[in-house]
Amino acid sequence: MGLNVLVVDDSPTFQRYLKRGLSAMGEVSSVTLAFSGEEAEEIIRISGDHFHLVTMDIEMPGMGGIQACQRIKALRQLAIIVISSVWSPSELALTFRALEMGADDIMAKPGPGTTPEAFAKEVLWRALPIINRIPHAAPPKPSPEVPPPSMVERTPHPIEAVAIGASTGGPKSTLELLKSIPSPCPVPILLVQHMFKGFEEGYARWLGDGSGHVISIASRGERLSGGKVFLCPSGLHMKVRNGSVDLSEEPPEHGVRPAVSVLFRSMLKEYGPRWAAVLLSGMGTDGSLEMAEARGAGAFTMAQDQASSVVWGMPGEAYMLGGVTLLAPPAELGSRLASLVTRTERDVRE
């Protein structure tokens, strides 16, 4: 059985564009159009479990996309991907609120020259892992168990820095994790989030407003310090070198730039075992091998569990490689990090 998609957008031009692209995809059975949040809610209400995916605009007359996400998710368990055309940081920060209201991912509307088929293919690439974990056919498998924190290996060193990697589902997970770490954090936190270019300023504002932490888009040569989260800019790799941020345009890894793998390798070289690695919800395997190497070198490694992940790709692969010290939901990972980053040499010896 193919996918049934509801496209919610007040632009007839974009509706036709996306319907044409989705209809050309073999995985899609039907495409239904709605011009407003109210119309989308009513369609979902009367359709039972017919739909698998909703694509949602944010700015529409009447009920906007953020409220529509919340109301639709209250009615049905289905995948919602926001397709945003806003670009100012303040408007993008508002767009990211859709993730708190039930949206699963955010995409930018297509640029000039992008064919409907190419854009629809990317929509499905993002949506299918989300749809597959929703119990239309079968519930997701429970997360593998690891020993509770009291039984995992102790960290024999103070933590001098934290590195976080995330992809699909990562923004909301990162927010939940940071909320559990009191601000200011005494050590620097470095963050790589796979994201559309131009979204990082809005993401940083939303993440800072929601978590209480200072979120800074990292710049080349910037000295690392506690009290700040250093967000990697889109289109560049981020490394740590001699206590400072290093940004580069080296080739993509795992098909992405920035790559978590690049950051994790540099963290291991810079800090040895004296850092914590975190992998949150995301597709693919970016960072998983390097997390296993970090654990082998004595660093403390943490990954989001399957039950709370939108897509259990990156953290799941790290677990399968034996690279995870603690597997848990984001809030629990944050609480554990909060206790780790405040430990001193004396605490470790005792």
Please identify the top-level CATH class of the largest domain.
Alpha Beta
Distance between the termini: 59 Å
CATH homologous superfamily grouping of the largest domain: Methylesterase CheB, C-terminal domain
Count of structural domains: 2
- The proportion of strand residues reads 15-25%
Architecture per CATH nomenclature, i.e. the level-2 architecture of the largest domain: 3-Layer(aba) Sandwich
Count of β-strands: 14
Q: Roughly how much helix do the residues carry, as a percent range? A: 25-40%
What is the tally of helical segments? 12
- Spatial sequence of strands, sheet with the most strands: 8-9-7-6-12-13-14
- Based on CA atoms alone, the radius of gyration comes out at 20 Å
Give me the strand/helix succession. EHEHEHEHEHEHEHEEEEHEHEHEHH
The CATH topology of the largest domain, please? Answer: Rossmann fold
Largest sheet: 7 strands, parallel
* Content-based structural category: alpha/beta
Low-confidence segments:
137-141, 147-153
Q: Indicate the overall shape.
A: elongated
pLDDT averaged over residues: 91
Structure in a nutshell:
This protein is of the alpha/beta class. It folds into two domains: 3-132, Response regulator (Rossmann fold); 162-349, Rossmann fold, CATH 3.40.50.180.
Write the layout of secondary structure elements.
Elements: E1 3-8, H1 12-23, E2 28-34, H2 37-46, E3 53-56, H3 65-75, E4 79-84, H4 89-100, E5 105-108, H5 116-132, E6 162-166, H6 170-179, E7 189-193, H7 200-211, E8 215-217, E9 229-231, E10 237-241, E11 244-248, H8 260-271, E12 276-279, H9 288-296, E13 300-304, H10 314-320, E14 326-328, H11 330-341, H12 345-349
Helix pairs in contact: 1-5, 2-3, 3-4, 4-7, 6-7, 6-11, 8-9, 9-10
